[in-house]
Design brief:
356 residues, mainly alpha, Peroxidase, domain 2, two-stranded antiparallel ribbon, 15 helices, peroxidase activity, iron
Length: 356
């Protein structure tokens, strides 16, 4: 199975590489100008996740939210004095990890001043977030004792301990200087049906397979009740305890109601993948196949024959390597969404503000 997965991944990445080449992104972009960039980013990631493993989900989500608006240009990181930037919009108000991204950027700037974009740092952080939460916790603690060396025996040992996907991130993105809150309408809301989801994904050149694969990012992290509580109390607009989403499995619905006491609960956090929300695995598909997907968008995957078949196949847990290869390929494809390259954009010194 492992050999088959490696072959599949090689073919998928080869196809994606053609697209990346057109966008001037490539694996060795910083090989001369900043060869230590991945070491620096991973060292900071190891430190952070050893203390707060739950940060992995938000960091993956941040890269997703960046790429769906204006492409992967780190516009989601920009501050605005009058609160009109992407991060001020409702879909991004629950994002967290901005301070950590600035810490990583500062470390990269110290190693290689004015060289590596915030957009590339976000892409590397997202990859390492997925990979590191797939490693046994004790191994992450071990990694904090060493400076990461990709070709060392320790690195190979840690790689073998990973139970999740890993991919080489094509680099060369530059940072944008525009961030507009209203443009977050391009983000797929958790309330979306299948038609809306496919339209929003198609806008960034992602297809139905990318949709079902990337939705599995919900296997790590948590969500606020307000992102799905209409399924529990206001499915048709009646706003009462009996106005429920009939597609949600009843026992799971009652469990959610015990956590989210009302439609107005704006603070409670719920695990998106109960029982393994700190581990990147295929349990998400098991939940969705049992009608226990947390969001409307999760349940929507069962309304289309192709995505339903993909969910059911991977709900068995028998094709993990296949899914991990698919996830790696879709993440590379998403990371190539309309990047600024060449002389476009800039290399920000701080991720939250433009240089001038």
């Amino acid at each position: 199975m492992a050999l088959r997965a490696r072959t599949m991944l090689a073919l998928l990445l080869a196809a994606v590489a053609v697209t990346c080449a057109r966008a001037q992104l490539h694996d060795n972009f910083y090989s001369e100008s900043c060869p230590s960039v991945e070491d620096v980013v991973r060292k900071e990631m190891v430190r952070a996740l050893s203390l707060a493993p739950s940060l992995a989900g938000p960091l993956l989500r941040m890269h997703f939210h960046d790429c769906f608006v204006r492409g992967c240009d780190s516009s989601v990181l920009l501050d605005s004095a009058n609160k009109t930037a992407e991060k001020d919009a409702q879909p991004n108000q629950t994002l967290r990890g901005f301070g950590f991204v600035e810490r990583v950027k500062a470390a990269v700037e110290k190693a290689c001043p004015d060289t590596v974009s915030c957009a590339d740092i976000l892409a590397l952080i997202a990859r390492d977030a997925v990979w590191l939460v797939s490693i046994d916790y004790w191994a992450i603690l071990q990694m904090t004792r060493y400076v990461w060396k990709p070709n060392s025996n320790a690195a190979r040992s840690w790689f073998l301990q990973s139970k999740g996907p890993f991919w080489t991130v094509p680099l060369g993105r530059r940072d944008g200087s525009v961030s507009i809150s209203n443009e977050t309408d391009a983000l797929p809301p958790p309330t979306s049906n299948f038609t809306v989801l496919t339209q929003l994904f198609a806008a960034v050149n992602l297809d139905a397979k990318d949709l079902v694969v990337l939705s599995a990012g919900h296997t790590i992290g948590t969500s606020h009740c307000f992102s799905f509580s209409d399924r529990l109390y206001n499915f048709t607009g009646m706003e009462n305890p009996s106005d429920i989403d009939p597609t949600l499995e009843p026992q799971y619905m009652m469990r959610l109601k015990s956590k989210c006491a009302s439609l107005n609960d704006n603070t409670t956090l719920v695990e998106m993948d109960p029982g393994s929300f700190k581990t990147f695995d295929t349990d998400y598909f098991k939940l969705v196949s049992k009608r226990r997907g947390l969001f409307h968008s999760d349940g929507a995957l069962l309304t289309d024959p192709f995505t339903r078949a993909y969910v059911q196949r991977h709900a068995t847990g028998a094709f993990k390597d296949e899914f991990f290869a698919d996830f790696a390929a879709s993440m590379i494809k998403m990371g190539n969404a309309n990047p600024l390259t060449g002389s476009n954009g800039e290399i920000r010194k701080k991720c939250s503000v433009v240089n001038h």
